[in-house]
Structure formats: structure tokens, C-alpha cells
Prior knowledge:
The chain is α+β, with helices and mostly antiparallel strands. The protein has helices spanning 3-13, 21-41, 45-56, 65-77, 98-104, 112-132, 143-157, 162-175, 194-210, 227-230, 262-275, 291-297, 311-314, 318-328, 338-341, 344-350, 365-371, 373-376, 413-424, 430-441, 448-455; strands spanning 84-86, 91-92, 250-251, 282-289, 353-357, 384-390, 395-400. The protein has a four-stranded mixed sheet. A three-stranded antiparallel sheet has the order 2-1-3, with helices on one face. Helix 1 (3-13) packs across helix 7 (143-157) and helix 4 packs antiparallel against helix 9 (194-210). The chain is globular.
Amino acid sequence: MTQTERIAEFANSVSFNAIPSATIDRLKLHLLDAIASFVWAQFQELPANVKKALTALSPDGIMPADHLAQLYTTYIRYPDFMDNFLAKESTCHPSDNIGILLAAGHLEEIQGKDFLTAMAIAYDVECRLTELFPVMIEGYDHTVLLSFSATAGAGRLLGLSREELTNALGIAGCSFNPVVTSRASYTSQWKGLVSSMVNAGCMNILSIAKQGITGPEKLFEIPEKGLNAIYKQHLDVDWSKEDFSIISRCSLKTFNAEVHAQSVLELISELAAAHRFAAGEIEQVDITTFLTAYHIIGNGEYGDRTVVYSKEQADHSLPYLAAVTILDKQVYPQQLIADRITSPDVQELLKKVKVHTGFPLHKPVKVAGMLDPYTSAYPDKVKCKVEIVLKDGKKISGEKETYKGFYSTPLTYEDVQQKFIKLNESYVDRESANRIFTLVSNLENASVKELLDAINFR
């Protein structure tokens, strides 16, 4: 069997009862976390503009399912406050899958058990592919892999046969190969919207495949022209052996910032609380981190992160995030608005933040990864060291290797409820919030329609 056939068979063979109860609880946690962003985004300008653009394509006012998949994914993705799965050479946002699964609820009557089953399938497929087929090392965006997981999960909900789903996976794999350029500095708004376009296309493809349109069965395996050859890798997974344990390695965010910054920001918060220094006393902030963090948010391969004037650049700039955490004691959406980003205090302080790895050489990557203790521990740990040098010569330092929300020290359901409330207290009353909390915690006994009714406010 080919890899697309195996993924299709896996997606169609899983039953709700076969998914461990601990995994179901973890999925509910991540679903509520995604819904917190989904609700908040409905009241923000950029997602509202996306909705306006998509509505303009639907003169009768009824948005088709592919556009809903795009809109719902925009809602979840835009805040950049969602979950992550970290692999040695790549990362992904498994909650990117949720938008298309919710959109499927406009096409079919879907029960909560079926939704959670599809969510487990999608999470497992994307995380496993991220671990074993890390396209980012070849310059492609991790949303390449979303095309397979979103298609598998939504295909299950929409009742595609194994043959139809195999075709859909082949078509999706040929059609969506975004490049990592959107994440490089200076980072644009498209960084947070790529996954929404992938999901729109996948919903469209599922409808086409259901009508018998075929795609390449040997998508990965075709010599020279298959994905194995194109990405210079080899995918050989026995999907029948997946037990969903990989989902327990997904992490959530405490700070509204890129995932690799989380342990640094938590450490800075702890140091600031313990030593109570003022920002004006700081001479320099030295941050030691692992290679992936350095490259993406610390002035490495993804470019200069010291020029910061927009949300998208700010939440991917470790110098900015460190500075604003020192000043504001938190990173939430209010730290990512233009007025805060351009304030003289944070602009001056971010220039004092220096980021480096634990080993001075960064190439060859495999050698650097072995010699640098911070990099060698990743992704099982997210080690960092922060040293704050004050103008009077005093040095304040500490180290961390995890953070609250990392998979080894996860947030609780109550923690995510508080995150929801903090994000949305200006927009949603407590009665509406409690309704959402109850629905998600008991989703196996509810329907997707009930959930959609509860979370759509605009």
C-alpha cells in the first residue's frame, strides 16, 4: 500500500472507543484553547476584513464550506496564541486542523464523538508527519503537512470512502506546497493566514474527490517526481500502529508569543518578580537558547528581529518579547498592538537584548546540535538561560528547561478557562463563556451544531 492509501485507511478505521480517554481529555483542552482564539478574533480588524472579503464572493450571503474553513482557520490562527507540536527539525500547529473540522459541521450533522475522532486523526497525522517528514529543512512551510491531516480528518467527517480519500490526499499533496518565506523577517500578515488557505483548498478537494476525481496514488513513492524525491526524504509509516500517544506531546502557550520564546519569557517573569529591578536600570539582557529558537526569533536564518513595528514581527521577535515582558509583566494581545510596539520604552529596551546559542558555531547543524547543550536537549526540553546585567554591575540570572503549557508541564482545563476569560472578557459575558466550557468538556454528548451556535458571535 502507498502512504496515501495507508493514511486513508487509518482515517476510516479509527473508532471513538479506540482512542484513550486521556487523549480525549487532551483534545478537549486543545479545542477549548483554540476556541479562545476563535472567539477573540471575531472582534478584531484583520479577521473581520477576511470575512468581508469572503462574503463579497458569496452574493447570496451564504458562505460555502470552503470559505468557512478559511474563515474559521483564520479565527484560530490569527492571534498566534494556539498550540504547537515540536519535533527535532520542524514544528506545526495541530489546531490548524480545527477550522476545517468545524466547517464540516455546516455540511453534515456531526456528533461530538465523531468530531473528537476526526480531531484525533488530524492531530496524529500532522504531528507524525512533522516528526518524520520535516519539510521545513528544505525551505517549505509546515502547512504542507496540514494538507494531509486536514484532508484526512475532514474526509472522515464527510464520509469519503478509502478510495475517495486516497484521491483527495493525492490531490492535496500536489496542490499545497507553501514555502517558509512567509515566516522570515520582516514578517507579514500572511504568516498567520497560510493555513487558512490550505484548509479552504482541502475542503474544495474533498468535495471534488467525492465526485470521483482521481489524484496520484503514489504521491510519495513515484521515482524522481514523488514527494520523497522532491523533499529529499523518505516517508514509510505503518499508520495502522498509531495509538495517538503522540498527541500527548503537543503544547499550549501561556504567553501570546512564538512557542520557542515561552520558556525564556516565563524565566524573565520569574526573575523580574524575584528581584524587582526597573527597566531603566538595565544595561543588557543576554539570552542563551537553542538553535531553532535562535534562527526563528533570535536574529538567525529567518532574519533581523530587532526591527519591530507590527504584530507579526513582534510575536516572532525574542528581543521585543523579552523587553515587553520586563516592562508589562505579560504578553497578551495588548502587547502586540501598534501603539505598544512603537512605544519608546520598549523600542529602547529591545536594543539591549542579545540572543545567542550555547555553542558559537551553527553549522554543520548536526554537529552544532550535538555540541550545544541547549540544542541537543530540544525538543524534549526547551532550555534557556537569561542574564540581566544592571548598570550598577549587578547580574541577575537563571535557567529553565520547560514552561507552564509545555507538554511535560501542561495547562489544566481550569488554566485554559482562565486564558479564555482573560482574552475575551471585553467581548463575551460569563454565561456565554460557561456555556462554551460545558459544551467542550462534554462534547461527546453534544453536537457540532450546538458548539458552532455557542462560539459564533459575529
